[in-house]
Amino acid sequence: MLEKLLETAAFSRRFPDKKGVSVLKKIFIIVIAILVFGEGMAYGAEAYKGWADLWNYGAYHATNFESNNFKTGIARIEGRLGFYTPELWKDVALMPYVAYIGVASGDNNYWNNDIAGGVGLRMYPFRAGGAGWVKAIKLYAETLSVSYLKDTNTAAGLPTNDTRLGLDLWYEWNQKQENADNANFDFSKPWGETWTNISYRTTNFTQNNFNNVVMYAQFKNGLYLGGQKGSILFEPYLRTDLNLSGKNDFWLNNFVYGLGMRFQPFRKTDSKINPLLYKLKIFFEVLGISYLSAKPQDGRPNTDIRFGVDFSLGR
């Protein structure tokens, strides 16, 4: 249940009812519309311009740290679509949005098969005066509602609404950026990225009195191999994930570590390309896990092998 922290916001795998199918169709239409018209989205804080923050993931997992019989694919879609209000101060504006999060897999557990949607508000408070990663810090508040699309009997009675207040950070260093001069990019130096989220959650879709803080921090640090300067081919990397919570649940308190290799076929060129494809990554990872609080008692595997694709927009 390592993925529970990430997937507990909602998703899907098999779609047993018309309501679930309808929601998935709407999300599919939104994603296709952004794929086609994504170049019209704004990335600055110009008032009333639209913005998009999308993350899409699909991979085969050998165990997923859940069961030796997991051995299946899992797909995740997550998106926030909104607009900028007039500036509060230089380069800083409020950013209201609608959100969707969904997961689908061949596994039968409800936490790997659900879909959530809601609304939220975010801002980059340090965009004007911050430096480096500080400018990328987002503060946000959002409310989400979830529908379980499989294993619904087990999920019966679980809360279906959650309110979250927190901080989110996506930051890359020494990686080519779209629509930038990339003057500081250096093929001979290491690259890195982090996704960190710290939030207070009222239910976390697990219990009505959850009311606790959870933290997820992922770091990838790697090298560029196999190409000439500016032509990125292969990127071996070290990955570490830290999950922490005020609760004692093992799936919310663990440390994941391992090695990966990825290839970004469209990021190595300066030619114009749809922004949804610019950061498309094909990857392979071998990971291990250590538990930091309660230990699982059901003989869960402590290793996992994953390979798949990952692509994002606006992050």
Could you describe the 3D structure shown?
This protein is mainly beta and 315 residues long. It is 10% helix and 44% strand. The protein is built from four helices and 14 strands. The protein has helices at residues 4-7, 18-37, 152-155, 275-278, and strands spanning 50-61, 72-83, 87-89, 92-93, 95-105, 114-123, 137-148, 161-173, 191-201, 212-222, 235-245, 254-263, 281-291, 303-313. The protein has a twelve-stranded antiparallel beta barrel. A two-stranded antiparallel ribbon has the order 3-4. A hairpin with an 8-residue loop joins strand 5 (95-105) and strand 6 (114-123). The longest helix has 20 residues, at 18-37. The two termini are 26 Å apart. Mean pLDDT is 84; it is low at 1-24 and 34-43.
Mean pLDDT: 84
| Helix residue percentage | 10-25%
Shape: globular
> Which range does the strand content fall in?
35-45%
Terminal residue distance: 26 Å
The profile of the biggest β sheet is: 12 strands, antiparallel, barrel
Question: What is the topology, as strand order, of the major beta sheet?
Answer: 1-2-5-6-7-8-9-10-11-12-13-14
Instruction: Give the C-alpha Rg.
Output: 19 Å
Order of SSEs: HHEEEEEEEHEEEEEHEE
Summing up helix and strand content along with how strands pair, one would put the structural category as mainly beta
Helix count from the secondary structure assignment = 4
Low-confidence stretches: 1-24, 34-43
